[in-house]
Write a structure and sequence with these properties.
Elements lengths: L6 E3 L8 H9 L4 E3 L3 E2 H5 L2 E5 L4 E5 L5 E5 L1 H4 L3 E6 L3 H11 L5 E6 L4 H4 L11 H16 L6 E7 L3 H12 L5 E8 L13 H10 L3 E5 L5 H11 L4 E4 L1 H5 L11 H14 L4 H11 L6 H6 L4 H12 L10 E5 L2 E5 L1 H14 L4 E3 L20 H7 L4 H20 L3 E3 L3
Parallel strand pairs: 1-2, 1-12, 2-7, 3-7, 7-8, 8-9, 9-10, 10-11, 11-12
Antiparallel strand pairs: 4-5, 5-6, 13-14, 15-16
Bound molecules: flavin mononucleotide.
């Protein structure tokens, strides 16, 4: 497991469930973080294998799924994020999950009350001894014995010396990666991240041979190119809200919103994602001005949402179809493919380093997830749906068109020199 120079999906409670992670991986994310799960909650869960979906599940006593992983796509790429304020509980929870994930990350950045009131998340930034004790325990008792990396995600402190002192302490715990959300605890995501301390932090992480990932308002792979151009090809980039709005932003050719929701809903249907979670994420992906926004908001099942998504592909009265959705400091931006291509050309022309192709990941949608329950196959979706033959065939053509576009313009990454 190597985090160096990777472009990754951020941990996101609610939004970073299995369908978002699978879609991000399909479109070029190198690694994906699970949503934060608190150690105490994980310890109440029971692990089981779901033979229909070929997933490994951790279920709470009330039957709710706390974590579900689909290893054919996620193996080697899934980082489990934990909330903790206790070295002992962190170790217990870590041992429970370590065989099903590829690394464990400690959340030291969440400013929400439910986290900080019990000493977790961003509260750990004010208790560095405890923070480092948790990391050391995880490294020595969970990571090292299982040959898996431990990492942590922090925010900036209020000034440079205290931030650097904290980073220095964290880097001595044996972790393999540090992610910095480039905002302070009191800053909101609509505010521009601060990069002033980044060069000094990079020096420290390099001294300890620890990889470094930068997080904060990266919209897409073009922003990641520019980040690596500024700080070197070894830095990684992590995207949260940008990927919540469009999980294909990891690709150099992100997908228009109408196509991404179709892919997303197909995955939600196949993996029986909870419909309220499906809807929550879907409404982040739909332009707020689309007439479909309210229609989806009223729907109750994955299948109904999937059928409506199929219908809207061929709706000539939806002027937003074909536009790519990005999010910039919590504001929605829609671009035509031509506008995005011009942006891409401009960014690539400014890069001093070579760009090399990286693999596309699975591109044959017909084979992808073919081991997942027969009952949730594409045929069943179509036979149960009210969509006409014409709509269905148009949907398929759309998917093929985009794939051939991806084939000619694969994901690219900056080449290390
Ligand atoms: C819906 C949502 C859920 C989040 N959940 C987590 C979480 O579980 N753990 C965490 O460390 N950060 C969490 N975050 C913070 C993000 O990982 C990220 O640090 C932050 O959004 C800044 O990145 P961005 O500017 O790319 O959005 C969450 C953010 C959002 C929008």
């Amino acid at each position: 497991m190597n985090y160096t120079g990777k472009f990754v999906l951020a941990p996101m409670v609610r939004s970073g469930e299995l369908p978002t992670r699978l879609l991000a991986l399909r479109h070029g994310a190198d690694l994906v973080w699970s949503p934060e799960i608190v150690d105490k909650k994980l310890l109440t869960c029971t692990r089981s294998y779901n033979s229909k979906l070929n997933t490994t599940e951790f279920r709470e006593p009330n039957g709710r799924i706390a974590l579900s992983t689909y290893k054919p796509s996620e193996a080697g790429k899934l980082i489990f994020q934990m909330g903790s304020s206790s070295p002992e509980l962190a170790v217990k929870a870590g041992l429970m999950v370590i065989n099903d994930v590829d690394g464990i990350d400690l959340n030291c950045g969440c400013p929400k009350n439910f986290s900080v009131h019990s000493g977790m998340g961003a509260a750990l930034l004010s208790t560095p001894t405890l923070l480092c004790d948790i990391l050391k325990s995880l490294v020595q008792k969970v990571g090292d014995p299982n040959n898996k990396p431990i990492s942590c995600k922090i925010r900036l402190l209020g000034d440079l010396p205290s931030t650097l002192e904290l980073v220095e302490q964290i880097c001595q715990t044996g972790i393999k990666n540090l992610t910095l959300h480039c905002r302070t605890r009191s800053m909101r995501n609509r505010e521009e991240p601060l990069h002033d301390y980044v060069p000094e932090i990079i020096k420290i992480t390099k001294k300890y041979n620890i990889s470094f990932i930068i997080n904060g308002n990266l919209r897409n792979r073009l922003d990641f190119f520019e980040l690596q151009q500024r700080y070197g090809p070894e830095v990684g980039g992590m995207v949260a809200e940008g990927a919540e709005a469009n999980p294909s932003v990891f690709s150099i050719n992100p997908v228009p919103w109408n196509e991404i929701i179709l892919e997303f809903l197909q995955i939600c249907f196949k993996f029986e994602n909870h419909p309220s979670n499906t809807k929550y994420i879907l409404l982040n992906q739909i332009p707020s001005k689309s007439k479909y926004y309210q229609k989806f908001a009223r729907m109750k099942t994955n299948l109904d949402m999937l059928n409506l998504a199929k219908e809207l592909q061929v709706d000539k009265d939806e002027p937003l179809n074909g536009k790519i959705k990005f999010r910039h400091l919590q504001k929605e931006r829609l671009q035509t493919i031509e506008q995005y291509s011009a942006w891409k050309k401009e960014v690539i022309s400014k890069l001093s380093q070579d760009i090399e192709n990286v693999s596309l990941g699975p591109i044959d949608f017909t084979k992808e997830f073919s081991d997942v329950g027969v009952e949730s196959s594409e045929e069943t979706v179509e036979s149960k749906s009210h969509v006409t033959d014409t709509n269905t065939s148009t949907t398929k053509i759309t998917t093929k068109r985009r794939l051939s576009l991806d084939n000619t313009l694969p994901h690219k990454t900056l080449k290390s020199t």
